[in-house]
Inverse folding.
């Protein structure tokens, strides 16, 4: 896992390997179909089908996102979560 910190606050977490999942249990190796089935209309699929984004609707969470990156077969290869403005770009901080 890697973390993005802005002004002393964690605003993004990236998971690129291991058994770490969302609190709903979806992580690396999960399928696109399983995620879409679990979250229904709260899932937005990218136009190229390479990622799924969970868009919460509850107050307090509606500015957060979870994004699962998918391979060509629809399996999750990585995920990231955090504040929408920081998690939307696929690439996090550059270290500059």
């Amino acid at each position: 896992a890697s973390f993005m910190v802005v002004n002393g606050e964690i605003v993004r977490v990236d998971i690129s390997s291991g058994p770490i999942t969302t609190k709903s249990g979806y992580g690396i190796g999960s399928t696109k179909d399983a995620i879409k089935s679990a979250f229904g209309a709260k899932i937005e699929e990218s136009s190229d089908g390479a990622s799924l984004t969970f868009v919460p609707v509850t107050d307090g969470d509606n500015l957060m996102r979870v994004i699962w990156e998918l391979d060509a077969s629809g399996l999750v290869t990585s995920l990231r979560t955090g504040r929408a403005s920081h998690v939307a770009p696929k690439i996090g901080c550059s270290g500059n």
User: Anything to note?
Assistant: The two ends are 20 Å apart (CA to CA). The first strand starts at residue 2 and ends at 6. The chain has a mean pLDDT of 92.
